[in-house]
Design brief:
Layout: E1 5-11, H1 36-50, E2 55-58, H2 60-65, H3 67-75, E3 79-82, H4 95-113, E4 119-120, H5 134-140, E5 145-146, E6 176-177, E7 182-185, E8 188-191, H6 194-199, H7 202-214, E9 220-223, H8 240-247, H9 250-263, E10 266-267, H10 269-280
Parallel strand pairs: 1-2, 1-9, 1-10, 2-3, 4-5, 5-6
Antiparallel strand pairs: 7-8
Bound molecules: zinc ion.
């Protein structure tokens, strides 16, 4: 039997990424060219063409400004889930600031979609060992699942000791954490989604998904709408490393994403979280 994997899109503007946080001030965001509606529209078209459903972890900031986009995502049968308000990473907040961020994002997303938000993804996978309270707050706020942990060692994020597959982070709560898929190579975990997918051959991702499915577990894959937009404005004063990461192979990405989307079985992460939760009973 083919295992259904989790397909996800982190819906944010080209300027709302960790790579540019030191060179683009949040106060300037409203004056920058918005491209999220067009780019996410292209992703929706791609998914419709492949007849797959997915989860769109969306910033409250985007939902507050583009409610029609959120309605369109929900109307197409996809899951609208939370990516926080403005891409503040969880480890930069206190527990109470995090709760406030969750509530504001959820209100905007639910108002726009008309559907309940039950899933959360931390910006830049920023739930890690610095934030032992984060899953507790998510459980208290009634979330069914989180997909906020990257069990890798990376210069900007990662929790290498975390489990690779679904786990219950709080002993007495139903909340399930579904870490983003990493693949074991020797004694190291290697990331597979986002920029890694853009930079490495698609055969590596296909192999990783097959490896995970051979372990009878669903893979959790993600990318961003800005990654399929080669026409986005260039941030001239960003650090070279950030620019290399952000701008590499944008022209190839839309075609490249079609490959894993067509080659594996995919579904919304809320459905996968429910199955994993039942398995963990
Ligand atoms: Zn993000």
């Amino acid at each position: 039997m083919r295992i259904e994997n989790g397909l996800s899109v982190d819906v944010e503007e080209w300027f709302q990424v960790g790579a540019f946080e030191r060179v683009i001030d949040k106060a300037d965001w409203p004056s920058l060219q918005s491209r999220v509606e067009a780019n996410t529209g292209a992703v929706l078209d791609l998914f419709a063409e492949a007849d797959v459903k997915a989860t769109f972890f969306t910033l409250g900031w985007v939902a507050e400004r583009c409610p029609a986009l959120i309605r369109r995502i929900a109307a197409a049968g996809h899951e609208v889930a939370s990516h926080g308000v403005d891409h503040s990473r969880v480890f930069t907040m206190t527990a109470e600031q995090f709760r406030g961020d969750l509530r504001r994002a959820r209100a905007a997303l639910e108002d726009a979609s008309g559907a309940k938000v039950t899933g959360y993804r931390a910006p830049s996978f920023s739930i890690d060992k610095r934030t032992p309270w984060a899953h507790q707050v998510l459980a208290e706020e009634g979330y069914a699942y989180s997909s906020s942990v990257a069990p890798v060692r990376h210069d900007h994020y990662g929790w290498p000791e975390a489990p690779r597959f679904a786990f219950r982070p709080i002993a007495d709560a139903g909340l399930v954490e579904l870490p983003v898929t990493v693949v074991r190579i020797g004694s190291r975990n290697l990331a597979t989604g986002g920029g890694f997918f853009r930079l490495f051959p698609t055969t590596l991702t296909d192999w990783a998904i097959r490896q995970v499915n051979a372990e009878h577990r669903p893979a959790i894959f993600y990318f961003h709408p800005w990654e399929i937009d080669p026409g986005q404005p260039r941030v001239a004063n960003a650090p070279l490393k950030s620019k290399l990461r952000h701008y590499s192979r944008l022209t190839k990405m839309a075609g490249k994403v079609r490959h894993p989307v067509a080659g594996h079985a995919w579904g919304r992460i809320d459905a996968i979280a429910a199955r994993e939760a039942a398995r963990l009973e």
